[in-house]
Structure formats: C-alpha cells, structure tokens
Amino acid sequence: MPYSGALRIALVAPPLERVPPRAYGGTERIVHELVLELDRRGHDVTLFASGDSEPPANGQLIATVGEALRPTGFGGDASPYFYSTILDVLHRADEFDLIHAHLDWPGILLAHVSPTPVINTFHGRIDFPFAGRLFEDAPRGLVAISRAQAHLCPEVPWEAVVHNGLNLADAPFERRAGEELCFVGRIAPEKGVVDAIEVARLAGRKLRIAAKIGPRPDERAYYENVFMPALKAAGSNVEFLGELGPHDRDRLFAESAASLMPGSWPEPFGLVAIESLACGTPVIARRAGGLPEILRDGVDGFLADDSQAMAFSVGRLDRLDRQAIRASVLERFSAERMTNDYLAVYRAMLDHMGRGVEPRLAASAARDRWAAASATDGPESEARQPALRTINAPIEAAASRRPD
Questions:
Q1: Which pTM does this prediction carry?
Q2: Residue 199: which domain range?
Q3: What are the DSSP calls for 17-69, one per residue?
Q4: What is the pLDDT of residues 363-385, one digit of tens each?
C-alpha cells in the first residue's frame, strides 16, 4: 500500500551558505522552504547545514561546519567540507526513512554508499565533461529542476522533474512601477550582467544592479577587469547596489519596470525570475535553459535571443498585466506545490523500495533492496525510469558552479 503518515527526512544542504541565506543563495533558499513545509506538515525533519542555520521548528540541526563558508570570505577548495558533510550524514543514516541531498555531484557518491534511500536534487548545471562518467550506473532518486536541465543528459534515469518553489505571498506589489530596469544575481560572465548594461543602453532606460561579488580569484578578476569598466563607461545610467537582503531585493523588483536576465548559459531554473514575477514585475530574458518553462512569452515578460531583441521588448512592457503576472506565479511556483511534488517523489521511491510497509519499519526493508534495485538491468529496469515524469573536477564544480 502507498506510504502515509510522517516520515523521518534528512535534508542535506551545502556548507557554503547558511539556511536560509541572509542575502544571496538559491539552493539554500529552496532547502529552507522544504524544511518549513515538511516540518509544518508533521514530518520529522533533520537539517544538515552550517551551524549558523535556522533549525527546524520541531526537528534538529546537525552542523556540518561552524558557520557558512562563503560569508566568511572563503574562496578556496571546498571539497573537504563536502566530504565531511557526507560523512556526517552517513554516521546517522540509519535514523532516517529517506535522505534528500542538495549537494549536486557529491550527492551521487552519498547515494551509492548510503544504507538509506537518497533523493538527489541537482540545482546547478550538469553539462560538464565528467557528467557521463558520474551518471554511469546512476542511482535511483535523481531529480532535475527543469525539463531543460534534464534534457542535457537524456540518458539519465531521472526520478522526476520538480520545479522550484518559494513562499511568495508576501512579496511587495506595485501596480504602477517606475521606468528603471533591474538586474539581480551574481557578477559572473554566465549571468550576463554586462549584457544587461548594454540592453538598458539600447532601450534608453536606467538600470539598477543588485549583485553578489564572489570571493574566488576568477570572480574577482571578472569584477575588476570586465564589470567595473563597463559600469564606469555607463556613467549615471547604471547604479550598482551591491548584494541586497531579501526585503530590499523584493522592493527593487517591485519598483522596476522589468527584470533583465540576459545570461546565455543553460540556467537550470531561475529563482530570480519567479521572485520578480511574484512582485508583478515582468522578466525580459534570453531564451536559454529553464527560463522558457517559467516565462510565458508575451504574458509574464518576453523571451529574446540577443541584446537588441531584449531592448526592443522593453518598449512592449505596457501591454502586460502586472497583477495577472503575480497571481499566476503564486499558483505555479509556490513552496506548497514544490513540497507536494517532492512528497510524491519520496513516497513513490519508498513504495518501490519498501513494498507498502509502514514508513519507520520500511526503512530497513528499503535499505536491503537499495543496492540491487539501483543496479538492475533486466525487467526491473522499468522501475528505474522516472516514476513522476509528468511532474511538471565534480565536487569543486558543485561549489563553484551554482544556480544562484
């Protein structure tokens, strides 16, 4: 019979930002939303995260590092901290019915060695040369956050595609916004911040940039050698606000005519897009990655293929209904919807592994079947295909190439 009742769930976050992040940190925001929703629904939640994270209201926090690494200015090799996180989880794996990891590539290692079933959500890009090797003999439980992300590795037996969701109901809303455009994200070439400056110039609009400067040498070099010269050349037409906290970031969205997302990389999802839309603010984005799954072209904003086309779209913003934009995103990308989808993934996985035993007793039965089921090549291989398709060097890459 299908699983019902409370589950003992471990949520595993990277050690890079606290949960929730004080400012920038997309993966950690998603983990926080899951902690809140699963805890509210009566599940027994344990969070593995930095020691300065917020513990679940009715669960516990297991500190994987004393405090989050990035806010301290750490920009080195985070691999040992990911190894340590995996060990922390393994030492307590028998305490859980299911482990939900948000570590990207290190999560595959965890899934192969854990005695407890592991769900792995990939938040970052997966189009790396090493991907094929790590996805060989892939364990069950791999989840993509967009169809575009999953299609980059179509041979992977994805368990499901689950779009991200946030608690967006309190986002500020301005029916009549200003004329300025905004860019929110990271100062990084893949995010297209310099392209955003060009779009604003071509459109004849002022631009406000709220963005994080990464601590790594390559990130600092891009900031100093590429972004700063472009910012100075733009003069008073572009204002750089630095990294903003959630309240100020949402106010920036609400006051802007549109948000620009000109990055050409295969954005796995795009939390900035749903945050902007929740404020009623349209998004003008390059047609790349998972953004076409979020933006309804001509309804929530506009999809374009280059800076000139994006600038042209600025002149069409008055055709859009900001209130309708907000209403739609609150329904499609809520934390409640995301949690419902993940619970369906959890229960489908445990039903397959435990054959209908009560959750707390099923964990041991699931562990007995886990290794064999993950490597099945015969008739059972059908069970490895995504049960929920209708739901609409690696560790260093996990630390450096994030979706935030």
A1: 0.85
A2: 181-332
A3: S-SS-SS--HHHHHHHHHHHHHHHTT-EEEEEE-TTSPPPSSSEEEESSSS-S
A4: 444 344 344 444 444 333 333 33
